[in-house]
Amino acid sequence: MTEPIKAVALISGGLDSMLAAKVVMDQGVHVEGINFFTGFCVEGHTHAIRARKGSAPKRNNALWVAEQLGIKLHIIDVIEEYKKVLLSPKHGYGQHLNPCLDCKIFMVRKALAWGFMAEHGFDFIVTGEVIGQRPKSQRKATMPVIAKESGADDRLLRPLCAQNLPPTLPEREGWVDRDALFGFQGRNRKPQIELAQRLGFTEWAQPAGGCCFLTDAQYSRKLTDLWAAQGSKDYELDDIMLLKVGRHIRPAPHFKLIVSREEGENRYLEGYRKRFLNLRPISHLGPLCLVDGHPEPADLELAARVVARYSQGREAAAVTVAAEDPNGERRELTVPPLAPAELPSAWHV
Amino acid sequence: MSEPGPVETLDARGLLCPMPVIKAQDRIAGLRPGTVLEVWATDPGTLADVPAWCRVHGHEVLETAQADHEIRIRIKVN
Ligand code: SF4
Fold first, then answer.
1. Which terminal residue of chain A has fewer beta carbons within 10 Å of its beta carbon, N or C?
2. A36 within 8 A of A76, measured Cβ to Cβ
3. A275 shares a domain with A197
4. What's the pTM?
């Protein structure tokens, strides 16, 4: 019996990668999906964040896509390795801190390394890239850069725009029929939507912006602030996870307050509470606040006043706030809530 | 029905999605068919994501339980 031809498809959870995988599957190729967790992903995210988006379904879209396609999905933790990509991208950043081109090269390289391991035995890589879809990373000129620098070369097939690119190995070998692939180009989404309908899909995720928080202006600002405050361009997973939730208020370079905005964020921050000096109002309902950095004892009162400002006692003369440090030492402060005018907008990161 | 095999546990409490899924996936890769893996988690997202991962990989979710913010998911490895 001959082994079937096998392709590993990068699955982001969005429409394009879903279509790309499906087009190749429909040609009789065995496809499995791969998805990378960089720490910045929007997809596959936590309940707290999903709940905040209101109508967004509480699901991991990459897994959901795999289920629609009936393929396996392998989710790979690349948090550590991704640091190099983000901290010193050879090709630079996009509009914000998104190193899209380096990121694509990295992911294809990882998919290649994973898929071509002897025990996995895949023959080629599939992505949902479309020429001209993204102004910086998905251009005609970047397509060969990704293929070459990832090491995939002509084992990288982009079924949605293959007809605009030189034939790849799977096409030349007849593993897939080039005529049944596509020549999509540009930012227009109509061809993808038509194809989705033709293939029988009635639902798909439509992430705004991109696949990760690094395309988000506000998130990028918080990350830049973190680097400035710690004096070095580096991060741990917890740092970047905490940038995803809450109001971030920096009254001084040596400390920052992370104040939850609603119940979901409260629960999310709760998971970190024991590792930070944390405050919470006890005389009134109000948010949990983590204090990041190295606050001085004198900073505690200001922190308590900020927390009081976001509590239901914001109009009260005084609010009592409990502060607990990571050693479990607890004290209570009764403070007047900060007036809006006392909280300069420059403190909001 | 066959008797469940040996029971293994995976403590993914305190981890946020998708890390519990990744940990379960990596653990299951080294387990024999028939083994039962019990995943402990705290992120409510695991209630959706771990069963979804099991469905696409053909493993069976025997039971999910949630009490006091703690989640337990029993998976039979196939
Ligand atoms: S949006 Fe984020 S995950 Fe997507 S290619 Fe750009 S940097 Fe990578």
1. N
2. yes
3. no
4. 0.92
